[in-house]
UniProtKB/TrEMBL annotation:
<keyword id="KW-0456">Lyase</keyword>
<dbReference type="Pfam" id="PF24684">
    <property type="entry name" value="Vgb_lyase"/>
</dbReference>
<dbReference type="InterPro" id="IPR015943">
    <property type="entry name" value="WD40/YVTN_repeat-like_dom_sf"/>
</dbReference>
<protein>
    <submittedName>
        <fullName>Virginiamycin B lyase</fullName>
    </submittedName>
</protein>
<dbReference type="InterPro" id="IPR051344">
    <property type="entry name" value="Vgb"/>
</dbReference>
<dbReference type="GO" id="GO:0016829">
    <property type="term" value="F:lyase activity"/>
</dbReference>
């Protein structure tokens, strides 16, 4: 990113609904979960809004775009994954382990799904036929959080184990990389075009990168108390991230250079974000808005 981006905000719900995560589908629609509203909201390319209820009490959290115009959503309390299109709910897949609290979700190039189970120390996989298989992380009480798919690996964060995990292409063994900073608390993670995992450490104010060989590099944020929450790769090899504690969005280049931008509304509490194919960055803001960040390339 060169220069300061243009940031516009769009109201998509009331503040009580709490937008939490964002995904962009191939039809240029922007989707967000409403964590306290038991729904997802879809902002079409023309700016029109559709709110799609998922059922009471499910607590939708993360979501991922999976094809031309649909998303899959994790329902933490509902203990299921929900497939949603513009017209409404298309299907649901229950998580086999009771009260697993599914959270992070990602998809492969073949359309299969991977998800985390915060309360059960498991990673879940849904194949093309809808069959679910679960894999132990090996970190008791580790709280698997966000997850990302690269070509030959699945990366995930272990928030309470202060570690990053990796499941290789053979799906037979989980590798765990403990982080060197005490209380790191990693949350968001993303896969870069080169297959490396980039992740944020909300408790330490650091951005980390781990490559396929397990080599770890960490970059300190200017404010170590800024609470980085989510991160998303861009096509140029860098990443965008949210700073929940300092009301900012940021960008880190593949060379480690960090640029920060203030959000227009104070205390907007940015959470999830997504990078659209046109490089626009969409950010979920807790008071019921989406931020549209138009970056200079």
């Amino acid at each position: 990113m060169s220069g300061q981006p243009l940031i516009r905000e769009h109201q998509v719900s009331d503040a009580a609904a709490m937008p939490y995560a964002v995904a962009v589908t191939d039809d240029s629609a922007v989707w967000a979960t409403l964590a306290q509203g038991d729904a997802v909201v879809r902002r079409a390319a023309d700016g029109s809004l559709t709110t799609i209820p998922l059922g009471e009490g499910g607590r939708p959290l993360l979501l991922v775009a999976t094809d031309q115009d649909t998303v899959w959503v994790t329902e933490s309390v509902g203990n299921r994954l929900v497939h949603v299109g513009p017209e409404g709910v298309r299907a649901a897949v229950p998580v086999p382990t009771p009260e697993a609290h599914p959270f992070g979700i990602a998809t492969t190039g073949t359309g299969e799904l991977w998800f985390t189970e915060m309360a059960s120390d498991l990673i879940g996989h849904v194949d093309a036929h809808g069959r679910v298989r679960e894999f132990p992380t090996g970190a008791a009480g580790g709280m698997p959080s966000l997850i990302a798919c690269a070509d030959d690996a699945v990366w995930f964060t272990l928030n309470q184990a202060h570690a990053v995990g990796c499941l290789r292409a053979d799906h037979e063994q989980v590798e765990i990389l403990p982080l060197p900073t005490q209380g790191a608390g990693p949350v968001g993670i993303t896969a870069a075009p080169d297959g490396a995992g980039w992740f944020v450490q909300i408790g330490a104010g650091l951005i980390g990168r781990v490559d396929a060989a397990g080599t770890l590099v960490e970059h300190a944020l200017p404010d170590r108390q800024s609470k980085p929450h989510a991160i998303a790769a861009d096509p140029a090899g860098g990443c965008w991230f949210t700073l929940w504690g300092s009301n900012q969005v940021g960008h880190i280049g593949d060379d480690g250079a960090i640029t920060l931008a203030e959000l227009p509304t104070p205390d907007s509490q940015p959470h999830g974000l997504a990078v659209a194919p046109d490089w626009t960055v969409w950010v979920a803001l807790e008071p019921g808005r989406l931020a549209e960040v138009s970056a200079q390339r």
